[in-house]
Amino acid sequence: MATISAAELEAKRDRLKKWIPESQSDASxxxxxxxxxxxxxxxxxxxxxxxxxxxxxxRISANRDSQDSTHMNIDMGNGMTFAFFDFPHVSRLQxxxxxxxxGIMHIALVIEDKKREEIKARLEQHKxxxxxxxxxxxxxxxxxxxxxxxxxx
Length: 153
Hints:
The protein is an alpha/beta fold. Helices cover 23% and strands 33% of the residues.
């Protein structure tokens, strides 16, 4: 893979800036309702989000697209949820997703400093690896989903 020079990188960034409107404009959508995520083990996922992250399960139902699948919503705040789906009968959906284009690097969740410190203590208590970088706390959920806990600034 060829490396890109600093000048080429800056030129690319300048080209991308043409999509930033000169005057403030609203997006055509109203924000996010949920993020749909494949889960290997819904019980481990529920325990992690409830017990470690302090994010409760708010709904369990059959997946309307596949009755052999369960749909579980986790509250991530402000009316938004993680929607986890298991497909235990589909072997290819049991593998963790590879890293790359079209994948999710991580999902950044805004959190108050006090709550972030509480979660860090629970991560340590449960022996879950995390990193602190630039004020954010980075970790992986039981499904390999990257999560960032970031300050509300």
